[in-house]
C-alpha cells in the first residue's frame, strides 16, 4: 500500500487502495494534515448546501479509550491516533442558515431564503431533522475516507456504537445525530481485498 505523503493518490487510486483498517501504527497525524483532509472533504455537496455536518476530532488517549468502550469495545478506536466523529446538528444549521447562502445574494434575498428554509423545516421532529442530517453526513464520510487515502492514511467507517454514550462523552446535545466514527491513521495491517457485487448485480440500464 502507498506510504504516507510520498505523493497524492488520484481519486481512482484512492478508491482502489482504500480498505477498512482496524490496526494502526501509533504515529500521530500532523494537525496540518488532518486539517487539509478535513478542509478538502468539507467540499462535499449537501442538499440545499445546508452542510449540517459537524466533526469532533478525538486524539486524547483517555477519551479514545472511553469511546472504544462506547463502540462495542472495537479495538480500532483506541488503536488509531485520531478518531473523527461525524454528526449532524440541524438546530445549529437552521439557526444560522443565512451563512450557507452564496455571498452574491443580496441581504434581502438571504433573508427571504432563510425564512423559506426555516418554514420548510417547521413542524419536523428532532428525529426527522437529524435522520436527514445524518444521511448528509454519510456524503462527508465518503469524501473523508477518500481524501485520507489519497494522502496515504487509512480509515474504517464505524456505525457500531452507543450513540447516547458517545454524545455524553463528547458533551454533544442529545438531539444531534451521529453519522459514524472514523478512526484514521497509518495502517499496520493490509485489510481485506475488495469483495464487491459486479455491475450486472447492481445496475439496470433502461
Ligand atoms: C456505515 C458503515 C458502518 C460500519 N461499521 C463498522 C463497525 O462498526 N465496525 C467495523 O469494524 N467495520 C464497520 N464498517 C466497515 C465495513 O465492514 C467495511 O467497509 C466492509 O466490510 C467493506 O470492507 P472494506 O471497507 O475493507 O472495503 C462499516 C462500514 C460502513 C460503510
UniProtKB/TrEMBL annotation:
Instruction: Tell me the keywords, alphabetical order.
Output: Oxidoreductase
A family per Pfam: Nitroreductase
Alphabetically, the GO molecular function entries are: oxidoreductase activity
Q: Which InterPro entries match?
A: Nitroreductase, Nitroreductase-like
Give the E.C. number(s). 1.6.99.3
Q: Where is the Nitroreductase domain?
A: 16-185
Similarity comment: family membership: Belongs to the nitroreductase family.
This protein's name = NADH dehydrogenase
Amino acid at each position: 500500500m502507498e506510504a504516507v505523503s510520498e505523493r497524492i493518490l488520484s481519486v481512482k487510486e484512492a478508491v482502489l487502495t482504500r480498505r477498512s483498517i482496524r490496526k494502526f501504527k501509533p504515529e500521530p497525524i500532523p494537525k496540518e494534515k488532518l486539517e487539509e483532509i478535513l478542509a478538502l472533504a468539507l467540499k462535499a455537496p449537501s442538499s440545499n448546501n445546508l452542510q449540517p455536518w459537524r466533526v469532533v476530532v478525538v486524539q486524547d488517549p483517555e477519551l479514545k479509550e472511553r469511546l472504544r468502550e462506547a463502540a462495542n469495545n472495537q479495538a480500532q478506536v483506541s488503536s488509531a491516533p485520531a478518531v473523527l466523529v461525524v454528526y449532524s446538528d440541524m438546530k445549529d444549521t437552521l439557526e444560522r442558515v443565512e451563512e450557507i447562502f452564496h455571498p452574491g445574494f443580496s441581504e434581502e434575498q438571504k433573508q427571504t431564503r432563510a425564512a423559506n428554509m426555516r418554514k420548510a423545516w417547521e413542524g419536523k421532529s428532532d428525529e426527522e431533522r437529524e435522520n436527514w442530517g445524518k444521511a448528509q453526513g454519510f456524503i462527508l464520510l465518503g469524501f473523508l475516507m477518500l481524501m485520507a487515502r489519497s494522502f496515504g492514511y487509512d480509515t474504517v467507517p464505524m456505525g457500531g456504537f452507543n450513540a447516547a454514550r458517545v454524545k455524553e462523552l463528547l458533551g454533544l446535545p442529545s438531539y444531534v445525530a451521529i453519522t459514524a466514527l472514523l478512526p484514521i491513521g497509518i495502517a499496520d495491517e493490509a485489510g481485506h481485498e475488495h469483495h464487491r457485487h459486479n455491475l450486472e448485480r447492481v445496475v439496470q440500464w433502461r
